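This part of the workshop introduces the protein records we will be handling. To make this concrete, we reproduce a full record directly below:
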Amino acid sequence: MDSSIINLSNKTDKATKQMLQNVVNKKRKFERYKNYHFLFLWISVFYCFITIYLMYHLILKPYSYSFYDIFSIVFNNQFHMLLLFIAVFFLGATKVLYDKKEKYEKEYHELRCEIIDRSKDLWKDEAWKTRHEIFEMMKAKYDINLYHEAK
């Protein structure tokens, strides 16, 4: 558990601390996959742009008179096929990372909304009066808004 969550000693019970730690872990996973997706997306865009540019100048421009020549040059040369397979790999990896990012965002948002919905049960009596300190700490330290359900 993070030290800032452990230091909430008298304000929350262990189950609430574990829920807060879980939402922090989900947020970290979501942020990590969001960054990976962003990186692979831009690598894919630049790689595909460079590949299309090279294919245009090396194949399409000189052999534009015959579709058969273009087709045979692309599919008979291993280097050209490798360029195309790498482009497909980058685009596929980008899609897989996007799906993982969406999955972890959904899990994070659901857990955050559960904490918000159950806040009356998690903080009772005196703890209810000090819960805003916990919410402010979560917002300041982890950028997790526990005041409202909207993203």
The chain has one domain: 3-142. The mean pLDDT is 91.
